[in-house]
Design goal:
homodimer, about 425 residues, alpha/beta, Molybdenum Cofactor Biosythetic Enzyme, Chain A, six-stranded mixed sheet, five-stranded mixed sheet, 14 helices, about 40% helix, about 25% strand
Chain lengths: ~425, ~425
Amino acid sequence: MNLTAEILAVGTEILLGNIANTDAQDVSNALSELGINVYYHTVVGDNPQRVREAVDIAKKRADIIITTGGLGPTYDDLTKQTLAECFGKELYFDEYSAQRIRDLFAKRLHGAKMTENNLQQAYLPVGCTVFENSCGTAPGCAFEAEGKHVLMLPGPPSECRAMIKTGLLPYLKKLSGLEIRSHNIRIFGMGESSVEDKLRDLMTGLENPTLAPYAKEGEVLLRVTAKAANDDEADAMMQPVIEKVKETIGDFIYGIDVDSLEETVSNILRERSLTMAAAESLTGGLVAKRMTDIAGASQVFIGGAVTYSNSAKAGILGVSEETLEKYGAVSEQSAIEMAKGAKEKFGADIAVSLTGVAGPDSDDRGNPVGLVYIGLACGDDVLCRKVFCGSPRSRCRTMAANYALDTIRRYLLKIPMEDKFM
Amino acid sequence: MNLTAEILAVGTEILLGNIANTDAQDVSNALSELGINVYYHTVVGDNPQRVREAVDIAKKRADIIITTGGLGPTYDDLTKQTLAECFGKELYFDEYSAQRIRDLFAKRLHGAKMTENNLQQAYLPVGCTVFENSCGTAPGCAFEAEGKHVLMLPGPPSECRAMIKTGLLPYLKKLSGLEIRSHNIRIFGMGESSVEDKLRDLMTGLENPTLAPYAKEGEVLLRVTAKAANDDEADAMMQPVIEKVKETIGDFIYGIDVDSLEETVSNILRERSLTMAAAESLTGGLVAKRMTDIAGASQVFIGGAVTYSNSAKAGILGVSEETLEKYGAVSEQSAIEMAKGAKEKFGADIAVSLTGVAGPDSDDRGNPVGLVYIGLACGDDVLCRKVFCGSPRSRCRTMAANYALDTIRRYLLKIPMEDKFM
């Protein structure tokens, strides 16, 4: 069964350029895991007439219509009413959803007064499957009508992303006769075109399972997907492909079915009962932020210092004034002293440091934008890795944090630091 | 003249969820500046039949069709051919564009061999206006046919963004008689539905200027937009609306035409020549990261400590063991000692601290998920604000950082800390 889907985002804020349509990206990613073809994304404003017209078009060209946005409590949140109308459905007041909304205000929003319009969100199309919203007030839903499946998801990206997992995926998996499984192979330090070059023959020769690359910010994700009668069979089909990828890409693979470099680093530290600290200059806390994105981070991450100024590098981390003067803050010497200082001050087993030039301008010693030194201290070991993280500022900082985490991974796993400058 | 536009992105990579459609966001932003209404975004894959169908639909509902993507040298780059066909145009070989492509390979791509397919990019619709590509090889173009304006821009975001400025804006400004201006009013501490409740009458009564709310993560953005013969007239029309909003929302407005709370805090600190430090527990560096997102942050932000463990709170910031034992890390007392410690250790004029429970679980003293203490120390002043930041973890951390920045703003501007728990 080859189903096709159209994603219909409802939201004037997207048409005004206020936000990018990341919900469509998240939904597309989920559908590609399921092997459902997405032929169109459409964005339409909070205007019932234009939403109706867009739905009429989508009906003609897709089996599944997935809407995002317009489920909230305000007067321009019209998705449910409009879609119900388009498919000749009535809305009913879902007491269970209403109670969830009341409870959310009572328990989790600590005293925020619930205005009555919030209960509008509990009106849902008759006969629908309700998708609970684990991160917000507006429930989503799905129904079948006129031979089409209609799914409605909330607009706020965190709510949409959560409901894709808890609502959309289970619902759509039932439509497909087969189980679909996928594994995500995560790669850092090798660019997308190099990965593709190395794997082109393998990729083009595959039908089931499939292998597809996705460029992430400064990383590459390879997704292996198999359709089979059950999970075990799917896994067995994918195993040889994964092995082949491992052979080809080697140590640039930092994890399979992990979410991020920080998750991989956390896992390694936890397995070895090691603790970590970070000393950050140009990244301004991004490494610490990413390490503590992970629940339970306190087991492995003791803390970090953001030493943006030289005085903080000296005062907080004990980098010597002489080093700062002679070599500058952006230098191998400073990076190593920062890492040693962080290890000692925080009493951590391993510390990483980052110092470099995020831009937009080169520094007063003429160091170019994108130049970053990553220091590492562990026991009596120290090392420094010099990398180029490019521009603009935000990409430079992300890449620097990636390199810092990758440096810990490589050090602990005794993998040589082969620097492919990206 | 009220022109409407549709943005048609051509690219299978968007439908696969590989990238978000940020080109459409950039084009939309430019069109909203021009007062051209964008009623639809459409994304279609690199498939000539589906592109044709999408163009047929766009012709019926827009005066201006702007395509992004599909102008490159590979076999699936079919936008120009397909659009030319749809409007009965021939392509010609544009020698000037061809020479630019040859020159670019010779000069800027340092020895990369130019394969012949690169010259495909020099085929353009007869009679078009050519848009030079300042960042890449593929030229864009614009033509008028069947009463519609068709503009084609390249897909890579940096190329698209540059061509919006150098090609699209000048071309479309000629079409439009009116200027359009907008101002963004940024609000923290009051939820979207409360803002709407308070402003509903004002909003629904307006036609030009308009006033529209947008929920950001934990914030609300109100955009006022006016169309007029010139900028001054537009500003004059918006002024009374802005005043009315200020009267109604008051101190919850943290800035007009600023990008973020951190920008507002940076501006206040810079104006007063004050320096800042941060002591973060649950936010793990997010406040420092956000303060240093701003280029030139080093003028106001000295540094920060991420003290995730109690030992780091004591060792790095000098929080007393007694306080940590008696009141716990998540307490008013610890928050204040953290802020005082950060102020002293970093030698900053003002320091903010955050300690709380990000979840997923409550802490070992039974403090609930979402409870956060924000401490502040400045000169001899200390204060603590107790706030609830909700869940999930990522939202709790974002909200806690928002509250910390808002606390600095309110303290320095002598605005009472009215806590509306969101």
